[in-house]
Design a protein that fits this description.
The complex is a heterotrimer of chains A (340), B (666) and C (325).
Chain A: E1 8-19, E2 26-37, E3 41-45, H1 52-59, E4 67-72, E5 75-76, H2 81-87, E6 91-94, H3 108-119, H4 126-132, H5 149-162, E7 167-171, H6 179-196, E8 199-204, H7 207-213, E9 216-221, E10 224-230, H8 231-236, H9 241-249, H10 299-302
Parallel strand pairs in A: 3-8, 3-9, 6-7, 7-8
Antiparallel strand pairs in A: 1-2, 1-4, 4-5, 9-10
Helix pairs in contact in A: 3-5, 4-5, 5-6
Chain B: H1 3-11, H2 13-41, H3 67-99, H4 105-120, H5 123-134, H6 138-165, H7 168-175, H8 180-216, H9 228-236, H10 244-269, H11 284-295, E1 341-354, E2 357-370, E3 374-378, H12 385-392, E4 401-403, E5 406-409, E6 412-413, H13 419-429, E7 430-433, H14 437-440, H15 447-458, H16 463-476, H17 482-486, H18 495-506, E8 513-517, H19 525-542, E9 545-550, H20 553-559, E10 562-567, E11 570-576, H21 577-582, H22 587-595, H23 635-639, E12 645-648, E13 651-653
Parallel strand pairs in B: 3-9, 3-10, 7-8, 8-9
Antiparallel strand pairs in B: 1-2, 1-4, 1-5, 5-6, 10-11, 11-13, 12-13
Chain C: H1 2-42, H2 47-52, H3 58-67, H4 74-86, H5 100-137, H6 143-158, H7 161-175, H8 188-217, H9 220-227, H10 232-269, H11 275-284, H12 288-316
Helix pairs in contact in C: 1-12, 5-8, 5-10, 5-12, 6-8, 7-8, 7-10, 8-10, 9-10, 10-11, 10-12, 11-12
Classes of the chains: A alpha/beta (340), B alpha/beta (666), C mainly alpha (325).
């Protein structure tokens, strides 16, 4: 099934996902394009309600899409059940809540064993798998309730790896963990990815984590991708105002002295209602350089900038991309090689 | 039903009682007709309608039969019919309810609608309907009650399986391509089996009552058969002569019904298996929940007085509990009284009683807060940070108790302030902002009202003036169109707005101290920044000191001038933000800073981790609590717990090997 | 401008909500009607023969069959039934020859009275007792009181209404001779039957209300109310009660069906002329038209009452579209 020649393992085009019908329709994902590079990590960043988890669920077949294509190794998952079935061996997901992602009535060995049945491998691989995720082989006979959050997350990773997938979707896998455990799990993911050249779609709201792990970055806002670029370029010079507000808002140790007042990149007003998204650019009511602030930016209200995003730097969905002032020093991340 | 759960249920008095009665009933059901059968049928007309006597414990009926024997013999039929009709309800209702999970959405909705309508319909009417069709008699009664209970079980099974089906592990199974049937049997069913078995047990009791009702009305069991219900019914005809004729069988109905109900309830109350390990971020909740779980088994010496939380029966403050073995940290503030100190705490501890002993989530804290200062308290879950502020605010949940050597708020010893004055003092000068803005506002009241009541109660303002003040404060926290918003309900506010409304509530009085417990954890990062800026502005405008608790060190450094780092119930470092960024002294603080990725973390190196896990509060090691995870730990660290000592100026550290001198190296 | 349109839209949403609920009610009523029609059809054997007895002459049986319309094709019978019900004709009693709607008209007021009184009694007592118990035992305080409360409510909830009725008859009428035990004359005759019906539900609802109170008092916003140092009275009445009422009313609404069913049984204990005594008598006499009629009326009444309770609840819930400012 895998075609080593393809650059991207996952290519999403025009994906649309709707919830509800009639008056109560919520367009959670609105025609997005996304690429996950083979053997690399794409970090998908967005705040709550951006639709990023919905995208993840659509890729693994938990949610039906209303339009668009999802190509995994060239095969379109939206085409039919057969394609989706075949896709299961290629893509697996790790969920956010370690307390809800393992069946409390099954032992660890059964949980992983279920996954191995898909691949046809036997139970003898389980101790090796547990070792790979840093767990003692004796964990196999335990129940989830006997394990800590970090250990459970490792079991969830082992379950995903048991299928020997090519793509792993990690949906906020450290958000529910204690700080000192987060680092362990992130290191584990990093190791595994480098060792087996796995492709990873990393979904997170924590920009610092995305920066640490990702090769390329995509930013989602209210169901749309507003910017997508290789990680180094993105963090050096983000092109979309929303990306700027996100980066600006990241709590930083080094930048404490700067937080004396509101910066130029604080969003204006209140978050919009996802059931009634703004016309034109969805970020315009909150954009600190948009029509709410500057009189000559009326076009943001009327014209959707996503239509010709491909022609702009970083495929930014903003009419004024490329015209933003240079980011101040604290927004820039240190380039690799610089220690803290 | 897991055996451990059964065992636990049997260990409780109600469980044991229920088990005994059920066992007795079962024995009676078997031997009843054998032992009492002939006596039950023996007609003795001259002895008709006699009252209770030694020969006839319940008296005799109108043809002289011994009612007690008849009651004993009726046990078998009564229980049989009850069990049968339960089996019908369970056998049809549960599959109908469960298969909902595998149906398509449209079909599922229609079936769900039918079930909902059927559940609302009174079962007895349905039972009468079926009874009429099938004819009067035991069969009609069994089928009637059994079928009438089907919608209830279907609804229960449906709700349970729907809630399981929404969980992540079912989603994970689906991504693995496991068939819907397998998911049903291996994932859904095992996790709903217990509540269903419970309800099944209780419905034997309900069936018994239902069938007895029908028999009582003459529509159920017919002569020559008799069950408790029909005995009760025929006894009613001569209740004036011999009330025991009906009350006797009636008592058995009640007893059996009670036993089954009790059995079900006890099983429900008792938790199966080992308690679930607490979730992170629950902080105070985790300890409170664990403690209250422990506290349900009454400890012999558990202190029961609640720390003042507005109840009339408890006085303010807790009794001093010196000499429980904790060393005080830092100087006691006995004589000194600096005028611009908002808070002076010396040796604050919090204890929760439990079956396994006393849990101490906060152990001997000492610190001060100056007027207008912004300090942060940082720690992971289990560090005790939330409990600390709850204790300071006199809001500890029962049965927790706080104790201290000295606790001065605005220069006054809290223990010496009379209750009404304390209420006024704290209500107007201490503001609290909790973590979850969605649940901190009362969903049933308008937002403006919730702000206004603070000044209505404490400053005697009238409704109109209070509302005007509320609108002003809402404007101050940058909520647009505050007059409109004040009339709205909390669910019409966004998360960030709710948190700002909470801050505004604190501003209604004249705040001197604002305590914010993880105020931004539940919010998006862009909103978080706005809230932090707001807190700083409020601090600057009103001069109130701010205490912010967080698990995120970076967030704390964005707002606070000084940081207290907590670990396992103790302050391990008290350091200015400047110094923290330059290089903290305690190994835990250093490790914490190093392990959190930020925008300048080196991508080529793995993240620094802290090996191991935070310690459990009921299994603290002797000596320094961080020693098991500390790279610098030696014998001294493991043996003796270091006190919080000044290192340089205001910088205090609790460590035998604090880092001094050079800035951080990972 | 935007506010006006949203107001119109909200009004529209509420109308849609109402229309949907009424639509559902109509469907349920149609189902009940059809079931009551089918009652006679489902009976194995000859229903008329069963009603008139084995000794009745064949000609009488045939006459009755024709009178009941049983000789016509099924579909015609069904349509006739709809027509009859909608014009207020519920058939004729096989046993007494009286029009069924007349029998119901005389019995219904007694039953309605009884259920009404029982409902009011239940709601008032259960909510008060439950809230009181919840407030006193919150946080694990007063464990003995809690034990007493749980045991008492458990036992009272399990005692069936007919047994309670018998017990009450015995205590108040036989021993104390204070209240009447039969008939429907005056308010005194309501007391014992209403008690018999209400005691069980009061105990059951009080338990639920206590749990709800316990939950409500543990909510975050209650902690905030305590942090505001509001007086206890205000905390309970203004902050906790509104949240409790919704839950209590929901359960109370569900109890309606139980109360109606209990009244059917209790009327027979107290020989109180009402729908309950009518239907039991009819069943034992195989008087099918009466059975059909009473089941139809009772079923419809429960459905309509449930809808009213639903509407009341949604009017009270701030989260519903009705209340947005």
């Amino acid at each position: 099934m895998s075609k080593p020649g393809r650059m991207n393992i996952l290519e999403i085009r025009g994906l649309t996902i709707r919830f509800g019908t009639g008056r109560k329709t919520l367009v959670a994902v609105d025609g997005i394009d996304l690429d996950v590079p083979r053997g690399g990590i794409l970090g998908l960043v967005g705040e709550s309600g951006s639709g990023k988890s919905t995208v993840a669920r659509a890729v693994v077949g938990l949610i039906r899409s209303a339009g668009g294509t999802i190509r995994l190794n060239g095969a379109d998952l939206t085409a039919g059940a057969a394609e989706r079935r075949a896709a299961r061996r290629t893509v697996q997901m790790i969920f956010q809540d370690p307390y809800a992602s393992l069946n409390p009535r099954m032992r660890v060995s059964a949980i992983i064993g279920e996954a191995m049945r898909l691949r046809g491998t036997g139970a003898e691989r389980i101790p090796g798998l547990l070792d790979e995720v840093g767990l003692d082989p004796a964990t196999a006979s335990r129940y989830p309730r006997e394990l800590s959050g970090g250990q459970r997350q490792r079991v969830a990773i082992a379950r995903a790896l048991a299928v020997e997938p090519e793509l792993i979707i990690a949906d906020e896998i450290t958000s529910s963990l204690d700080v000192s455990v987060q680092a362990q799990v992130l290191n584990l993911l990093r190791d595994i990815q480098r060792r087996s050249s796995l492709s990873v779609l990393l979904i997170a709201h924590n920009v610092a984590v995305v920066r640490y792990l990702s090769d390329s970055v995509a930013v989602m806002h209210m169901g749309r991708i507003v910017e997508a670029a290789p990680a180094a370029e993105f963090f050096r010079a983000p092109q979309h105002p929303y990306s700027r507000t996100l980066l600006d808002a990241v709590p930083q140790l080094a930048g404490a002295a700067d937080t004396a007042g509101a910066s130029a990149w604080t969003p204006v007003g209140e978050p919009s209602d996802p059931h009634e998204p703004p016309t034109g650019c969805r970020f315009h009511p909150r954009c600190p350089v948009g029509p709410a602030v500057a009189a000559d930016r009326d076009i943001c209200r009327t014209l959707d900038p996503g239509a010709d995003a491909a022609s702009r730097p970083h495929r930014a969905a903003c009419h004024f991309a490329g015209m933003l002032p240079a980011p101040p020093p604290q927004v820039i991340a240190a380039t690799p090689g610089q220690e803290r | 039903m897991s055996s451990s759960r059964l065992r636990r249920a049997l260990a409780t008095p109600t469980g044991m009682a229920a088990a005994i009665v059920i066992a007795a009933m079962l024995v009676l059901a078997v031997i009843g007709p054998i032992v009492w059968g002939s006596k039950a049928a023996a007609i003795d007309v001259p002895a008709a309608l006699e009252g209770p006597s030694w020969q006839h414990l319940f008296g005799t009926d109108q043809i002289g039969r011994d009612i007690f024997s008849r009651t004993m013999a009726a046990t078998r039929l009564s229980l049989e019919l009850a069990v049968l009709s339960t089996l019908i309800a369970v056998g049809i209702g549960i599959p109908v309810g469960i298969t909902q999970a595998v149906l398509g959405p449209r079909l599922r909705r229609s079936v769900a609608g039918v079930i909902s309508a059927a559940v609302a319909f009174p079962g007895l009417l349905l039972a009468l309907f079926i009874n009429t069709i099938i004819g009067i008699g035991a069969t009609g009664a069994v089928l009637g009650i059994g079928i009438a209970m089907i919608p209830g079980f279907a609804r229960l099974a449906q709700t349970l399986s729907a809630s399981i089906a929404g969980l992540d592990y079912v989603a994970a199974a689906r991504t693995l391509g496991i068939s819907r049937i397998r998911i049903l049997f291996f994932h859904v069913l095992p996790n709903i089996a217990e509540p269903l078995t419970l309800t099944g047990t209780m419905s034997v009791g309900w069936s018994l009552l239902g069938i007895s009702a029908l028999s009582f009305l003459g529509l159920g069991v017919r002569p020559p058969s008799y069950d408790w219900g029909s005995l009760l019914g025929s006894g009613l005809q001569y209740v004036y002569e011999n009330p025991m004729a009906s009350l006797g069988p009636g008592a058995f109905i009640v007893l059996a019904g009670l036993a089954f109900n009790l059995a079900g309830e006890t099983l429900a109350r008792v938790q199966g298996g080992t308690p679930v390990a607490g979730r992170p971020w629950s902080g105070a909740g985790a300890v409170g929940a664990a403690a209250s779980a422990l506290a349900t088994a009454p400890a012999a010496d558990a202190p029961v007085a609640a720390v003042a939380d507005g109840e009339a029966d408890a006085g303010p403050g807790g009794e001093p509990d010196a000499g429980v073995g904790d060393e005080p940290d830092g100087p006691a503030f006995a004589g000194e009284r600096e005028p611009d100190l908002v808070l002076e705490v010396s040796d604050l501890s919090v204890r929760f009683p439990g079956a396994a002993g006393i849990v101490t989530p906060v152990r001997g804290l000492s610190f001060t807060i100056r007027a207008g200062e912004r300090i942060g308290i940082v720690g992971e879950s289990g560090s005790g940070k939330s409990m600390t502020v709850l204790a300071l605010a006199q809001l500890l949940p029962y049965p927790g108790r706080a104790s201290w050597k000295s606790l001065r708020y605005l220069g006054r010893d809290l223990r010496s302030v009379p209750a009404p004055e304390l209420r006024h003092l704290l209500g107007t000068s201490m503001a609290l902002v909790f973590q979850d803005p969605a649940s901190s506002l009362n969903p049933a009241l308008r937002v403006g009202r919730q702000l206004a009541e603070v000044v209505q109660v404490h400053s005697g303002l009238r409704r109109r003036e209070a509302m005007e003040l509320a609108v002003t404060r809402l404007r101050e926290v940058q909520i647009a169109r505050p007059e409109l918003r004040a009339q709205q309900y909390p669910h019409e506010f966004s998360g960030g707005m709710r948190q700002r409304a909470m801050i505004a509530t604190g501003l209604m009085g004249r705040p001197q101290l604002i305590i914010a417990d993880e105020p931004t954890t539940a919010l998006d990062v862009t909103v978080q920044r706005q809230i932090l800026l707001l807190l700083r502005q409020v601090n600057q405008d009103s001069g109130a000191a701010v205490v912010m608790i967080s698990h995120d060190v970076s967030v704390v450094t964005m707002l606070c001038q000084r940081v207290l780092v907590m670990y396992a119930g103790r302050i391990v470092e008290d350091i200015s933000t400047e110094q923290l960024l330059a290089g903290p002294a305690h190994p835990y603080t250093r490790a914490l800073l190093a392990s959190v990725p930020d925008m300048s973390t080196d991508r080529d190196r793995p993240l620094v981790t802290i090996g191991g896990r935070p310690p459990a509060l009921d299994a603290l090691p002797p000596g320094c609590a961080f020693a098991p995870r500390c790279p610098l730990a030696d014998e001294r660290c493991r043996a003796a717990d270091p006190a919080l000592e000044p290192l340089a100026g205001d910088h205090r550290v609790a460590c035998w090997h604090p880092h001094t001198g050079r800035p951080t190296s990972a | 401008m935007a506010e006006a349109t949203t107001a119109v839209r909200r009004h529209h949403t509420w109308l849609m909500f109402l229309a949907r609920r009424i639509g559902r009610l109509v469907v349920s009523l149609a189902v009940v009607l059809s079931l009551s029609f089918l009652l006679i059809q489902f009976i194995p054997g000859d229903p008329v023969r069963l009603a008139l007895g084995p000794t009745a002459p064949a000609s009488m049986v045939a006459q009755q069959r024709a009178a009941l319309g049983l000789t016509k094709p099924l579909v015609i019978q069904y349509l006739d039934y709809w027509h009859d019900v909608l014009t207020g004709h519920l058939g004729t009693s096989i046993v007494s020859g009286q029009p069924v709607e007349q029998i119901i008209a005389t019995s219904l007021p007694n039953t309605a009275e009884l259920v009404g009184v029982a409902l009011v009694l239940t709601m008032i007592l259960a909510v008060s007792l439950g809230v009181l118990a919840g407030a006193l035992t919150h946080y694990g305080r007063r464990p003995r009181l809690l034990l007493f409360f749980t045991s008492a409510t458990s036992i009272l909830n399990t005692i069936p209404e007919f047994l309670l009725g018998v017990g009450l008859v015995f205590v108040f009428a036989v021993t104390l001779k204070l209240l009447p035990v039969a008939g429907a004359a005056g308010w005194q005759s309501l007391v014992l039957p209403a008690l018999a019906i209400a005691i069980g539900p009061i105990a059951g609802l009080a338990r639920i209300v206590r749990v709800q109170t316990d939950v409500a008092l543990g909510q975050d916003y209650m902690r905030v109310a305590r942090a505001k140092r509001l007086p206890t009275r205000i905390i309970y009445l203004r902050q906790a009660l509104p949240n409790l009422l919704t839950a209590a009313l929901t359960i109370g609404g569900l109890l309606l069906g139980t109360l109606v069913a209990s009244s059917v049984v209790v009327e027979n204990v107290f020989a109180r002329p009402g729908l309950g005594t009518a239907i039991v008598q009819a069943i034992s006499q195989h008087d099918y038209p009466v059975i059909q009629g009473v089941l139809l009326v009772l079923g419809a009444a429960v459905l309509v009452l449930n809808l009213l309770v639903d509407l009341l609840l949604s009017a009270l819930d701030p989260r519903s579209t009705l209340r947005e400012s």
